[in-house]
Amino acid sequence: EIGTLTLMARTQKNKATAHHLGLLKARLAKLRRELITPKGGGGGGPGEGFDVAKTGDARIGFVGFPSVGKSTLLSNLAGVYSEVAAYEFTTLTTVPGVIRYKGAKIQLLDLPGIIEGAKDGKGRGRQVIAVARTCNLILIVLDVLKPLGHKKIIENELEGFGIRLNSKPPNIGFKKKDKGGINLTATCPQSELDAETVKSILAEYKIHNADVTLRSDATADDLIDVVEGNRVYIPCIYVLNKIDQISIEELDIIYKVPHCVPISAHHRWNFDDLLEKIWDYLKLVRIYTKPKGQLPDYTSPVVLPYSRTTVEDFCMKIHKNLIKEFKYALVWGLSVKHNPQKVGKDHTLEDEDVIQIVKK
Q1: Which of the chain's termini has less CB crowding within 10 Å, N or C?
Q2: Positive or negative, the Cα torsion across 331, 336, 338, 342?
Q3: pTM for the full model?
Q4: Burial of 168 by CB count in 10 Å (0-12 exposed, 13-18 middle, 19+ buried)?
Q5: What's phi and psi for 16, nearest 5 deg?
Q6: Residue 2 burial (CB < 10 Å; 0-12/13-18/19+)?
């Protein structure tokens, strides 16, 4: 991998080299994939039990350098008592905390050791990565006094594990075939990819027959992400801690930075803002249940991820047998025109709808 990296650093940019760089990037991506997918074989099991049971409606991973106040933030948010030491490299296991916010149970996980070297398989890196990839949101905790260097390193780490922050999957159609060669269609002008480059990247994956459709101006990295197919797209908030150490003017500037929330973990300043933004980014949908002839239960909503909010998803969340007995549902709220409205299992629910299931 080091060889490939230096080659990339040495290559100047022009059309021929763009093509060469694409190739090197693909080679690098392949090497990294071998690192993030642990090799098979018996013995030793899957690691020293860094697996964390997934509880609650959403899971948030906290990433940050040692001693930026990550543990303080976690324990003050969750009331989870986590030993806080004032020296480097403290946390090595994960203590999940759970907070309740707006009726949703949100699991908070410290992801230790995602720092330089983790993606090269050093340390506990691998298990941590596996857990990081299952998070619904990642909070990168930064020290407000030295944020940028840390931010870059952490982002590079996460990128290397196939985690893409605050971005959408590239708009590229990709379909392998048995014959017919590489068939490239672009629906808009491309500044980086041409037939030649696409062919060489795919050849690196030993793919010689495929349909590729570029629906946006795509980069070599985008194409590699699509071919690898193991990328996860996770929203991310940068938490700038220790704001008690800066001036009001500096604070005003931070407030304008996208995806950023300034806080003081120690003084518990601005936690409400942070929680509000977390809620925003998680995009959870709360559904209240109403037993027949009673008032809706507004205290414990059924919480669904925004990508799966049909009545069927709701039923599955409660119990998998419920859908077998399902006749129709009555829904009150934003997703319907009349209150109540009779709907089938394919109806899509909105946040804070009230539902009553009628069984056969």
Answers
A1: C
A2: negative
A3: 0.74
A4: exposed
A5: -65, -35
A6: exposed
SS (H, E, C) the chain: CHHHHHHHHHCCCCHHHHHHHHHHHHHHHHHHHHHHCCCCCCCCCCCCCCCCCCCCCEEEEEEECCCCCHHHHHHHHHCCCCCCCCCCCCCCCCCCEEEEECCEEEEEEECCCCCCCHHHCCCCHHHHHHHHCCCCEEEEEEECCCHHHHHHHHHHHHHHCCEEECCCCCCEEEEECCCCCEEEEECCCCCCCCHHHHHHHHHHCCCCCEEEEECCCCCHHHHHHHHHCCCEEECEEEEEECHHHCCHHHHHHHHCCCCEEECECCCCECHHHHHHHHHHHHCEEEEEECCCCCCCEEEEEEEEECCCCEHHHHHHHHCCCHHHHEEEEEEECCCCCCCCEEECCCCECCCCEEEEEEEC
In order along the chain (360 residues), what is the average pLDDT of each group of 10 residues? 60 65 80 63 41 72 78 74 42 62 83 57 61 87 78 83 88 88 86 84 87 88 86 91 82 83 84 89 91 87 88 87 88 91 91 90
